[in-house]
Design brief:
The structure is a homodimer of 136-residue chains. Chain A is of the alpha+beta class and 136 residues long. Helix content of chain A is 43%, strand content 19%. Chain A has two domains: 78 residues, Orthogonal Bundle (Arc Repressor Mutant, subunit A); 51 residues, Ferric-uptake regulator, C-terminal dimerisarion domain (Dna Ligase, domain 1, 2-Layer Sandwich). In chain A, the strands form two sheets. Chain A has a three-stranded mixed β-sheet with strand order 4-3-6. A two-stranded antiparallel ribbon of chain A has the order 1-2. In chain A, strand 1 and strand 2 form a beta hairpin. In chain A, helix 2 packs across helix 3, helix 2 packs across helix 4 and helix 3 crosses helix 4. Chain B binds a DNA duplex (30 and 30 nucleotides) through helix 4.
Chain lengths: 136, 136
DNA sequence: CGCTACTTGCGAAGACCTCGCAGAAAGTGC
DNA sequence: GCACTTTCTGCGAGGTCTTCGCAAGTAGCG
């Protein structure tokens, strides 16, 4: 796993802040910069919000995390390993559900064939109403 | 078409600003509040940004326009009549292409069947790379 | 151990959106 | 056509979220 080296391998320095931001994103699944900062503060109270923003950006540049806009204002970040499923955002309760990429395979193929549009499935936010809210 | 009455019918007053905001959204297809304001200023220079925001909100409440988040920061608005197609947002050039809803019919059905998730196709932004940028 | 380049913390600045208020205007009845 | 009530507009203040510049700190390397 060589956890220690994955950042170095990308040409980045190994600072406590950087590691914490990355592990926060991984453990949270998907989170806003604010939430990441909050998580990091549990073990490193002095971290600055700017640092979180900058590290998220840096980590995104080397492909370890990625961001999406799940509907409302801010961006949410998730780890690259997490990108194997779609995000189903519920407009009513705000929850974020998951579905395997396969569910969209057909659709993606359609768009590629008919419009030459190469859908980025990993950067995919789907808006609608979740099962729980539909019942209400 | 009784253009004059569609606002009145919804219980709204017929102000020049309101009409202009609505027609700006319609002629722009999809636009940010800022872009709407700019368009309106062509015929009504004095309009205030707050007024644009408030009218967009009001028009959304009565169902004449709707907003989506097409990826980056701000919301974009479009007329209700325009909601018969999907929006294909290109991450490279930022263009917004269209595709008929049918292209997603399969996909929507999948999600409904397998996850009970009721996808809101009209509020749907799809991220990827457009044909033009794929070639580059 | 010392040097260089990259990072952090901090405060300021900027973008974007919302809110409250007073004056103006639309719609209504006479 | 006129006065009245209610809604809307313009304006400025206030908030939130994000970015930026700078000086001090520290990781990595010989």
């Amino acid at each position: 796993m060589a956890e220690q080296h994955e950042l170095r391998d990308k040409g980045l320095r190994l600072t406590p802040q950087r590691e914490l931001v990355l592990s926060a994103v991984r453990s949270l699944g998907h989170a806003t910069p604010e939430e990441v900062a909050e998580r990091v503060r549990q073990t490193h109270p002095g971290i600055n919000l700017s640092t979180v923003y900058r590290n998220l950006e840096t980590l995104e540049n080397v492909g370890l995390v990625q961001h999406t806009h799940l509907g409302h204002g801010g961006a949410t970040y998730h780890a690259a390993e997490e990108m194997t499923h779609l995000h189903l955002v519920c407009g009513k309760c705000g929850s974020v559900g998951d579905a395997p990429i396969d569910a969209a395979a057909n659709f993606v193929q359609n768009l590629a064939d008919d419009y030459g549009f190469k859908t980025d499935v990993t950067h995919f936010a789907i808006y609608g109403t979740c099962a729980a809210c539909v019942e209400k």
